[in-house]
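User: I'm preparing a small set of examples for a lab meeting where we compare how different chains pack in three dimensions. I only have the primary sequence for this one, and I'd like the structure in token form so I can line it up with the others. Please keep the answer compact; I'll paste it straight into my notes.
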Amino acid sequence: MNMKDRIGQADWHNITASLHEKGYGLAPQILTEEECRQLIAQYEDASLYRKTIIMEHHKYGRGEYKYFQYPLPGIIQNLREAIYPQLAPVANNWMDVLNIKKQFPPGLDSLLEHCHANGQNRPTPLILKYARGGYNALHQDLYGDIYFPMQAVLFLSRPGEDYTGGEFVLIEQTPRAQSRAIVLNPGQGDMLLFTTNFRPAKGAKGYHRVNMKHGVSELTEGSRYTLGIIFHDAA
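Assistant: Understood. Below is the structure token output for the 235-residue chain.
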């Protein structure tokens, strides 16, 4: 089954409901074990990447990640193109209920054209690597004034076998209340979709923003690789 079919056959009804209710949704087994191994094996191929970030140098955490350069590898381009149209209607609904005068186009090409016309022309898909003691501090992946409100992370390593610890963490910052931590541990090949910076929540007086950040808890053993798919480009 090709990538477009795999994405299309995911349970988008439940994913959409979970995004609305919780700010994240899970699609299992989007990547095969072989595809995960290939992406990990390509980590050392410098020709694929435009930039490497050592997290400690910027106080982002402990570990490193690499941004892919254009043209993106086929599997990453296919993921980006197939996932975005499923999320655009959700994003537009969020804008509507929050009374934000913004709408996103149905196709990825149009979003990227808008990014590039406004000086955001650097690709944002990235691969991340953590070793024992590695972690990622809480953050948001915005990269410029134009940003899509959802992104994806695909898990390339096997929790409990390739590494321990290293859970994916979401922090929900509810207005006038204490923050709530959401801790997730998807399996190899699974795709987690989550809000880039906020989700709508319905209160007594209508909808309001709930801000969210994400990160990775400390690895206690092994090594952990993930693939991040961000739909807007960077300035």
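A couple of notes for your slides: The helical segments are 3-8, 12-22, 33-41, 55-58, 74-97, 108-117. The mean pLDDT is 96.

User: Perfect, thanks.
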